[in-house]
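Here comes my example:
=====
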Amino acid sequence: MMWDKLLSTRRYGHDENQKNVDLEIIRTNFQRDYDRLIFSSPFRRMQNKTQVFPLPGSVFVHNRLTHSLEVASIGRSLGNIVSNQIIKEKKADNHPLMSELGTIVSVAGLAHDLGNPPFGHSGESAISNFFENGGGQSLKSDMTEAEWLDLTNFEGNANLLRLLTHQFKGRRAGGMMLTCACLSAMIKYPFASTERTKKGKYGFFQSEKEAFNTIAHETGLVCLDAERNIFARNPLAYLMEAADDIAYMIMDIEDAHKLGILTFDETRERLSSFFDGENLQKFHQKLESVKDVVTDTNEVVAFLRALSINQLTTRTSEVFINNYDAIMNGTFSGSLVKNLPEKIETEYEESSDLSVKKIYNNQAVVKVEITGYNVLKTLVEEFLQAILSPNTNYSRKLLQLIPNQYKTEAVSTYDKCRQILDFISGMTDLYAMDIYKLIKGDSALTI
């Protein structure tokens, strides 16, 4: 892959390239992408979407919006470090926008969770299970195999590409009309649901196949299998993924400490585990210097969190540079975090295991997942029934709740399902709960 293609400033939805590389302007096209996302409604709605823990009461923990801002921040650092090394080591021609890698990864970080439905992964599971094992099973004969796999494995990553590129009713062509460079950097899984990973992950729905192919060809992604339409990742997608990995691992540990799930000693041990040798010595020296003047343990943990993020960001960028040729050729496999030095990777895995044991299986988290599962299952069932049988009085009333942007003249069963899932996946947790209560006629239900 070549940077002159990867750094395409063409906006999706425009027929001709906009070759705006004037570095004297106030904002580059990639910086404009960042601003478009920050000011968009889907981005703002993430403040009411659960990250891991229930939406905050007296203790403020992360939601999807704060998580995305932190991923964008880490991504910017990763992109800047990598671009500086590429320029320093002369690994590529001196493209005038090479210094903008940090901006592109930051844009991808802002957007990476926009496609997630309410209640996160439990929402994805509820949607998928409705079609796989619930009332949606009867619709299978109305779809192609690929369309059916889209629904039985609802995927937030694929939904992201739809959200950003689809022309919703009353909106302009090209969706948010972001640059192809930024859109390409967001696609972690550059293949369809028919080629999904063992975890069910894939990058685009059948409805966005053409959009994906346009972006892949515009940015010069390596085609690994033309017959199956499988491409290699954009190199910057590895940095976006790493920023996400680092953010949710470290920030979940900090949130768990704030909520009393992890003790200070457990938290300190976990955050120090990413250091070794001289770096570990420096870590403890800095810890002692802070503890001499700071008595608030949350503030001490925040300081240790910053040190840990810096350590993982530095070491992850080294993995990228050390594997630069393989990444650019499309032959690199796995994630950057999985290719960290053995000691750090082992500690990262142990932190993941701890997260599963003490954080993701925490009662408060499990309760939200159960609630989310039932809420999403009910919403999909009710609204899909309404759009498939629109002539009953109840269906007409229910369909009036759908905003105009999601109301299309859908003919196929697949497109009707997409229409309902667009509406539901865009909801916040709280709005989904409100509609659920309305349907159930129970205003006393709470999370």
About this structure: Confidence is low (pLDDT under 50) at residues 53-59.
